[in-house]
Amino acid sequence: LIWCKVPKAGSSTWTYNFLKLAGVDPKAHIHKALRDHFPRQDNNKIMQDTFRFMVVRHPFERILSAYRDKLEDLARDMEARDGFYYTMYGKAIVAEYRDRQDKNLTSVLEPTWKEFVTYLLNTPVTKFDEHWMPIWMLCSPCIVRYDVIAKMETFSEDTQFTLSQAGLEGKLTVEWKHRTGTGGSSDTIADYYSQLTQSEVAALFKKYQLDFELYGYDPEPYFDIAIVDR
After folding, report:
1. 19 alpha-carbon distance from chain centroid
2. What pTM does this model have?
3. In terms of Cα–Cα distance, which of 217, 218, 228 is closest to 194?
4. Is 198 in contact with 227 (CB distance < 8 Å)?
């Protein structure tokens, strides 16, 4: 069984399930435990002879989830990761893209959503963290032939199908992990994407265009939410 792990696309759930297969029940740091028990596979023979799957998600939802989970709340980042994302990304984003004239942000340490999007638009994708790197760069879908490409939008059904195709129905059940509220209800999505202009959404679409085309996602509703450029 080979899984290409896409952060912010059901990765905590599948990490938990893989650790269950290994007979491990870690209380914390599950992603580190996964690396300890399941090394990265580069062997072509193993890749060809094994059931392969991945999980994808709407690119705009995925980057919003990454922002909310990793960068929006410094206290959360300090508690979960000793401030890793603020140190590696947040501080530099604020230094580079903050409007110093905006008095509302004087005491705000974290990057705003608009600042994060500006950072994405001005940074080569090769320098992205894996949580907002395009999925095609993580999983090479044109090189590896996946038996199943599941979607977050139909996660429970697709996970059940994956388990059945992989012959694991008796060994695993779908146990959803990491529902931390950093995903996107339609109201939440509207709250954030209504802060962007349509030209910003268009530029963001260009960055992730291959993901939209490969996995059949539609950017149009996000243009409807965004501010019309004057």
Report:
1. 20
2. 0.89
3. 228
4. yes
> In sequence order, which residues have a C-beta less than 8 Å from that of residue 59 and are 6 or more positions away?
134, 135, 208, 211, 212, 217
Phi, psi of 228 (to 5 degrees): -70, 130
Helix, coil or strand: residue 53: strand
pLDDT one digit per residue (tens) for the chain, 230 residues: 888 999 999 888 888 888 877 777 766 566 666 766 666 666 565 566 789 999 999 999 999 999 999 999 999 999 988 999 999 999 999 999 999 999 999 999 999 999 999 999 999 999 999 999 999 999 999 988 999 999 999 998 999 999 999 988 888 877 666 555 555 688 999 999 999 999 999 999 999 999 999 999 999 999 999 999 98
Question: Phi then psi for 28, rounded to 5 degrees?
Answer: -150, 170
> Hey, CA dihedral for 130, 135, 139, 142, is it positive or negative?
negative
Q: In what order do the strands lie in the sheet with 148-151?
A: 2-4, 52-56, 148-151
Q: Which two tokens stand for residue 195?
A: 């802060």
Count the alpha carbons within 13 Å of 110 in the hemisphere toward its beta carbon.
18
Reported in sequence order, the residue ranges of the chain that DSSP labels E, i.e. its strands, are 2-4, 52-56, 148-151
Question: Two tokens at 131?
Answer: 């949580």
Provide the CA 17 distance to its chain's centre, in angstroms: 18
- Report d(CA 22, CA 38) in Å as an integer: 9
Chain centroid offset of residue 159 CA: 17
